[in-house]
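Bumping with the actual sequence this time:
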Amino acid sequence: MKIDLHIHTTYSDGTFSPEMVVDTAVECGLDVIALTDHDNILSHKVANDYVKKNNIDIEIIPGVEINTIYKGYEVHILGYFMDTENPDFQNLMKSQQEARIQQTNEIIELLNKKAGIRIKFEDIKSLVAEGGSIGRPHIARAITNAGGVNNVMEAYAKYINDSSNVYVQRKTVSPHDACEIIYDAGGIPVFAHPIDVEISDELAKDLTSYGLRGIEAYHRKHSPAMIEHYSSLAEKYGLIITGGSDFHAPSVNHGSILMGKNFVPSWVYDELIKEKRRLELL
């Protein structure tokens, strides 16, 4: 069995529509995928409708990736199998979207005042699927399209980074809140790509008290030594191990699709399903 439990679509910062993701996953020989857009679950229905309509043999796990802030670190919490109709989970999605819109409008205002770059909210909104999550990539592209810089990388370097005088940090929930809400909605909260968080080891321990049930040990940023480290950490705290490509777009460096190329053992899926069934019995 070939699995990829971390994939983004045009409903957040991915470049492939849910339908394109499904087609690409099939081409890559994947049996199971999880759509994990940032603060957004709209891709689930689109992808599932496409699979049913075309009788495609692939399993799609409902997922999400919540962007949180803790002690100055951006911490991402993945969620799998949560009840998306749960009121607290729906409120979380709503508040995260509102925070993204507020952040974007504040950045637009500062770009106008301090950098003389005039872009409209609609210019950014048009770069993401309807109802999708606006993020740094979309703002960077809008700045580039407006002629404020020569390319997206320059936009990041000048304006879309924490040290820029036009960048505003998003108001968001803590990883503790994200874990608790996902868990209470019957889902499996997982610490995503922990290598990005310097205090990941101690934070993982702390989050177990708030419902954290897994660590994403298999990730394209993780070396074999890191995979071993995070797998050991998961074992230490009684957490399951997950993994995925964190696919956003075809790789410029490799000129190929990286979806499913990050090796994730098939038993990871088995452990995820086992955890889902355990939670259902609680």
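The tokens above came from a reply further down the thread. The chain has two domains: 3-92+172-281, 97-158.
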